[in-house]
């Protein structure tokens, strides 16, 4: 894989993290809250905390991958994605069967991160 291919792969993963942070905030009182409420989390303050914490984590990881691409940063991103995937799976396992694949998309993202981890210093 060429250096430009790796850059494209990295930038596409950065975009996913930054777009997810933005979507979480833009849909704060819409889909983000509805998703957590449907999973049985009905404390409004806790829901707000989870959305802000998740969006903040996505933003920090996206910026870190853009500014300081390294094996360590990509490994942290992969770990965070795995934790969020497990939490989402516990809260709403039906997300694995959703036609647009909100959780199944994490599999190719994990592969992309694994490639970036292996090719980084």
Features:
0% strand; 121 residues; mainly alpha
Class based on secondary structure composition and strand pairing: mainly alpha
What is the number of helices?
5
**Distance linking N and C termini:** 15 Å
Largest sheet: none
Strands, count: 0
**What's the shape?**
elongated
Radius of gyration: 15 Å
What sequence of helices (H) and strands (E) makes up the elements? HHHHH
Measured as a percent range, the helix fraction is over 70%
Oligomer: single chain
Please state roughly what percent of the residues sit in beta strands, choosing from under 5%, 5-15%, 15-25%, 25-35%, 35-45% or over 45%.
under 5%
Mean pLDDT, rounded to whole units?
Answer: 93
Uncertain stretches of 5 or more adjacent residues: none
Please describe what this structure looks like.
The protein is built from five helices and no strands. With 121 residues, the chain is mostly helical. The radius of gyration is 15 Å and the shape is elongated.
